[in-house]
Design brief:
The structure is a homodimer. By secondary structure, chain A is mainly alpha-helical. The first copy, chain A, has one domain (about 5-135): Winged helix-like DNA-binding domain superfamily/Winged helix DNA-binding domain (Arc Repressor Mutant, subunit A, Orthogonal Bundle), CATH 1.10.10. Chain A contains six helices and two strands, in the order H-H-H-E-E-H-H-H. The first copy, chain A, has helices at about 5-20, 25-35, 35-50, 75-80, 100-125, 125-130; strands at about 55, 60-65. In chain A, strands 1-2 form a two-stranded antiparallel sheet. In chain A, strand 1 and strand 2 (about 60-65) form a beta hairpin. In chain A, about 35% of the residues are buried. The first copy, chain A, binds a DNA duplex through helix 3.
Chain lengths: ~140, ~140
DNA sequence: TCCTTTTGTAACTATTATAGTTACAAATTA
DNA sequence: TAATTTGTAACTATAATAGTTACAAAAGGA
């Protein structure tokens, strides 16, 4: 199970996309999420590095770096999630056992296939698809 | 990211499917995984409850409860993984904010769609598909 | 019947990741 | 230059996983 980082980041981006008055601060966004401004800023920092938002000290978030139609959930996922592998594989198996010797490679091929399909699904959904739900 | 429970369980089932001498013990299986027999027995217990394997005190594992062609990875996943949701959603959002009020439902719909696709992929792969890699 | 072996499970520790928090230097705008 | 906010480091709390120890109960076999 992935962390809530993708979910919280989508929340952050939605607030930015729909905000009427710019700029907007991490404090304001945090109040919508009911969490800590520092936590929001940590994610904002990743979103900025991935060129999804623009920020400025003193002003706060100045906007999306791209149109919401051009920000996919895969972009967000890759920006904020460090642990991207869907399934994890146990290491240190007994290489003297034919199964222990091959299981890692077998599982890796198999999981890669599912991982790719999942990421393709994420890439097909944009921030605009999300924000239109809030209007 | 899911735990290694699915991976380890596939390993356990592969050893059972390919073993030449029955019955086989949690000690033997643990030596292929390079882990603790008690950990193996915990997973075995779940696999037994899900009617995927048969066991006996004194003898150990007596075999698969079904043909390996009839055991899908989804069967295994559902048997051993408690945290099945692919993505997690942050709760306790600010309901006074239009985004905070709707984000949970929006994300849930979206994630359910991806979850279903992932589980369908798992259901299309059987233990037999795995074990044929080890021959 | 009784001995032996193994499961099944409880209880515990260690480790890791996430989430949440505090604090403050550095940047930048007005 | 003063005020405000980001960006980030350092820390705590919490929860889940993995690993371990221990033992009662089951059950096969002599």
């Amino acid at each position: 199970m992935y962390s809530t980082k993708l979910s919280v980041s989508i929340h952050i981006l939605s607030v930015i996309a729909l905000m009427e008055v710019e700029p907007i601060t991490s404090d304001y966004i945090a109040s919508s999420i009911n969490t800590n401004p520092a936590l929001v800023r940590r994610l904002m920092s990743r979103l900025k590095k991935a060129k999804l938002i623009t920020t400025s000290t003193k002003l706060g978030v100045t906007g999306l770096a791209r149109k919401s139609e051009d920000i996919s959930l895969l972009d967000v996922f890759l920006a904020v999630e460090d642990q991207r592998d869907l399934f994890s594989i146990h290491g240190n198996t007994n290489l003297n056992c034919p199964i222990g010797a091959k299981i890692e490679g077998t599982l890796k091929n198999l999981y890669d296939n599912i991982q790719t399909a999942t990421e393709e699904k994420l890439s097909a959904i944009t921030l605009a698809d999300i924000t239109k739900e809030f209007i």
